[in-house]
Structure formats: C-alpha cells, structure tokens
Amino acid sequence: MSELSFDQLSGLVRYIPYGPGLWNAVRRWPDSAVGRLNTVTALWEFSCNAQGTDKWIVLAETLLPALGEFWLGMVGFDWDDIARSFFRPTGLRFRYKMRDGKKKSKKTKLKKAWNFFFPEIGELVAAKLPLARFVKGRKVGNAQRWLWIIDGVAQRALYYWLLVDLGIDFAYNTSSSLIKNPRCWKGGAGWFQGGPGFLGIQADGVVRSTGAPMPQARGGENPPQGVPIYVRPGESVTLGCFAGDSRSLFNRVGSFSLWIEKVTDPGEEGETVGFGSTVLYENRNEYGLAALTTFENDESRGYWLVPKIVASASAPDALYLTDYTVFCRRN
Q1: Could you count the other beta carbons within 10 Å of the beta carbon of residue 183?
Q2: Contact residues for 327 (Cβ-Cβ < 8 A; gap 6+)
Q3: Is the pLDDT of residue 12 over 60?
C-alpha cells in the first residue's frame, strides 16, 4: 500500500470538516462580501437600453444562469454531509409544542416547499445507505450527545451563512450579467464595444491607462471611435469596463484596481469619476473588476474619459485579464 505524500496529506487536512479550509474561507469572506455588495450597489442604477424582444432575452440571459448557480449552491453536498447525516443519532432535538396551530401549519407548508425545491441530498443519500437506521438509532452517552448538539448548532450557523453568501452572489451575478450584456449598450446616439479580449500589465504598482481590446464593434449615428472617450460640451456618455477572469504569472500579485478618470489631456492625471473596484488576488474567483460612470459634460470645454488600472505584487510579477471588456454609449 503506497504512503500518502505531504502534499496529499495537507490537501486532505485542508478539507476536513471545521478544518483550515473553512477558517480560510471565513477569513476571506468579509472582503469578498463587501466587494460584491459595492459592485451591486454601484451597478444598480445602470439603465439597460434593450428594446422589444431584446428585453426578454436580456432578462432570460441575466436571471437563468444566476438562478441556476443559486440552486446548485443550495443543493450541493460533500462527503462529510453524508457521513454526518449517517452517524447523527436520532432524538437530539428538543421538542416543544407550539400554541398556535395556524402558525405551525403555515411554517410546515413553507418548510415542505423549501425542502422540495432545495432538497438535502446528503441526507437523502445517507438515509439509503445500508444499516442507516441501525446506526442512527444507537444509544449515545451524554458527552457524545452534546458534541452532536454543538455540531448541529454549528451546521445551522453555516447554513445561514451559506444563504447570505448565495444571496449576495445572486445579486452580484444578476447585476454584472445585466451590465455586461451587449444588448443593454446598443442604442442612444451611438455605441462602442471592445472585447472581451486580453489585457496584460506588470504588477509593479504603476498606474497605467487601458485601451479597448480586440475585437471591436460600433454602431449608431455617432459612435465613439475608441478608448479613451472624448466627451464634448453638452454630451452625456456612459462608459463601463469589466473583467472577471484574472491570472498571475508567478502567483505573487496581492491586489489590483480598475477605475475611470476625467482628464483634459489623455496623458495627464485626472479626477476619478463613477465607480471603481479593487480585488484581492485570493478573491479573484469570487468577483471581478468593474468600473462604471455616466458623465454629463456641462462645461464649455471637452474632457477625456480614461480607464486606469494598477496591480501590486510582493515580487516582480504580471497580471493577465483574459476577458477584459469595454462598453461605451452616447446617451
């Protein structure tokens, strides 16, 4: 029989119940949740220009994938869910009688409906295993009983955490899918799209301007010609830049940021306008970069809207965005 290597053993320990994997997720979650909520809040007021049947297409393309991910997150299970359900002894819960029969009936119906749409697959699998009734019906001592009760409380807390996280994820997925849908940007006096394409920068803490990746498309009577965007006096322009998939060459990147500046000359520093985001590299799989602004030029001179990006690393490295997309629309 072959022995486990150190890497295999550390990987196994990482994913044991209440192991390092859980505590690492707890440590990273606040920044991830705040980043996703900030993105949802910033993108909430975005106006989609889809017309006619395109509205229904956009609705389906936005909601269906997000609902699918929410459902998969709710019904997902692991080996420890099956083991916990198989070995958990019966009779652990404290029973109490509810005075209001109507409330109890309503609560029971809601619970049945919830379990129908989001079944506990781990419990269903464990119930069908051989000797399941015998193992669950065994007698346990007082100490073991309390350990199981504490485990039940911890699992309930993790379940509520899952609900909150999946709710935030659903809001983030719907808003980001809506704003990245090309049908929402076409219209107005003219529109422009660059990408999704490739963007690579050095992770050295130096701020750089970004253009629009290939392929590029434009339409309307007066479409923007590219990035940076020139906004003439009296014009109103909406500019958005997005990237969901990012990679580091040597895995040394700490964080990276994307925002939009208003400048009088493309080569100079300007004023940040609209929303910009910062992503920790360890949270790159949970949410992506986003920058959005609707700029109305009510002055007598023109301005340039320039997307800016920066990445920092602990040692020389490079950051690659493989799905960087730029949208612009003259309102």
Answers
A1: 16
A2: 180, 182, 185, 191, 192, 193, 238, 239, 240, 241, 242
A3: no
Each residue of 172-228: pLDDT tens digit?
Answer: 999 999 999 999 998 778 999 998 999 999 999 999 999 999 999 999 888 988 899
| DSSP 8-state secondary structure symbol assigned to residue 222 | S
The one-letter amino acid code at 168 reads I
For residue 56, give the H/E element and its range. helix 53-75
CA atoms lying within 13 Å on the CB side of residue 258: 27
The better pLDDT of the pair 198, 120 is held by 198
Residue 105 is predicted with a pLDDT of 67
328/186 Cα distance (integer angstroms): 9
Please give the full DSSP string across 112-155, using - where no structure is assigned. HHHHHHS--HHHHHHHTSTTHHHHHTS---HHHHHHHHHHHHHH
Structural domains of the chain, ranges and CATH numbers in brackets: 15-179 (no CATH), 189-330 (2.60.120)
Based on the number of CB atoms within 10 Å of its own CB, is 122 exposed (0-12), middle (13-18) or buried (19 or more)? buried
pTM recorded for the entire structure:
0.82
Q: Collect contacts of 53-60 with beta carbons under 8 A, ≥24 apart.
A: 54/183, 57/183, 58/178, 58/181, 58/183, 58/184
Structure confidence by residue, pLDDT tens digits, 122-141 = 777 878 888 878 778 788 88
> What is the percentage of the chain residues whose pLDDT exceeds 90?
49
Map residue 331 onto helix, strand or coil. Answer: coil
* 135 CA to centre of own chain: 40
Average pLDDT in the 68-75 region? Answer: 88
